Amino acid sequence: MPFGTTLIKTLQEISPTLRITVHPAQNVNDVPDELWSRCEVLYTNRILPNPELASNIKWVQLHWAGIESLVDKPLFAKPDITVTTLSGAAASQSAEHVLTMLLALGHQLLNLSIQQKKFEWPKDRWERFKPQELRTSTVGIIGYGSIGRQVARLLRESGATILATKNDALHPIDSGYTPKGMGDPSGDLIHRLYPAQALKSMLKDCDFIVVAVPLSDRTRGLINAEVLAVCKPTAYLVDISRGGIVNHDALIKALNNQKLGNAVNFQGQTTGF
User: Fold this and answer.
1) Distances (CA, A) of 202 to 41, 97, 193
2) Is the dihedral of CA 102, 103, 108, 112 positive or negative?
3) Coil, strand, or helix at residue 49?
4) Closest CA to 21 of 37, 42, 6, 45
5) Structure letter (DSSP) for residue 223
6) Cα(50)–Cα(68) distance, rounded to whole angstroms?
7) Dihedral, CA atoms, 14, 15, 21, 22, nearest 10 degrees?
8) How many other CB atoms sit within 10 Å of the CB of residue 11?
9) Which residue from 1, 71, 12 is spatially nearest to 43, judged by alpha carbons?
10) Mind listing the domains of the chain with CATH numbers?
11) DSSP labels, 174-214
């Protein structure tokens, strides 16, 4: 990663024994063998050397939270290596994006904007554009990790009923990275925590749904036609997760058949009306 001099200076001040080399590269061969051989800690975007090329590496810090495309790399098979990610580092920005989308959906800002551009003010406007307020809503968070917990913190003062799913619901404490004053380290901000197997039971009560699970073999295709079928036809879905978790064909079908209110993805793009 092409880190600037200010950041490197801050890192160097940690200890005079650190030797830090910034070497931007597009592929493994762009890094000299001599540098790979003496590297003990690697901060990288996606470039990973083969174990025989970098026998001294003990710690790899990846620049992303989602690393499903890298987990099978030979370097990670080394028994003495530690691999860390940026999971939790962007929780604040992601959670604020979710809150923005929840408010935009609930108050139908997109539909209002469309009508405004058409210079139309429908006669049934009071019913058509009636907002779904957070204070009278139930919000379900699928995946109670760093992003889901910060979403809960932002929602807590809105008056919404907050539900969430977690693989190990018997242990609500967050074991990941949480900046001070953020998230829900103890799992106290939600009204009910469901095990992942009870996803459908949670969704049937939700006015808003936030998808915030990591992509894995267990979660790939998790939000499918069967799951969407239990949702309220007025429910809104915000997908902040990796691609592959929400089955888009099933989602579009549910929207077209008016089995779901609306949905947006991570970029804020609407999937349907």
Assistant:
1) 43, 23, 9
2) negative
3) coil
4) 42
5) B
6) 18
7) 10
8) 12
9) 1
10) 5-84 (no CATH), 91-272 (3.40.50.720)
11) --S---TT-S-TTS-SSSEEEEGGGHHHHHTT-SEEEE-PP
Hey, what are 245's tokens? Answer: 């978790």
Looking at the chain, the number of H-run helices and the number of E-run strands are: 9, 10
Tokens, residue 161: 């009923």
Model pLDDT for residues 106-162, shown as the tens digit of each residue: 998 887 777 778 787 777 776 777 889 999 999 999 999 999 999 999 999 999 999
Taking alpha carbons only, the member of 241, 202, 201 closest to residue 220 is: 241
Tokens at residue 149, please?
């917990």
Question: 40-82, pLDDT tens digit by residue?
Answer: 999 998 899 999 999 999 999 999 888 777 888 889 888 899 9
C-alpha dist (Å) from residue 53 to 27, 31, 34, 50, 58: 14, 11, 9, 5, 13
Sequence-ordered list of residues with C-beta below 8 angstroms from that of 55, at least 6 positions apart, any chain: 37
pTM of the model: 0.84
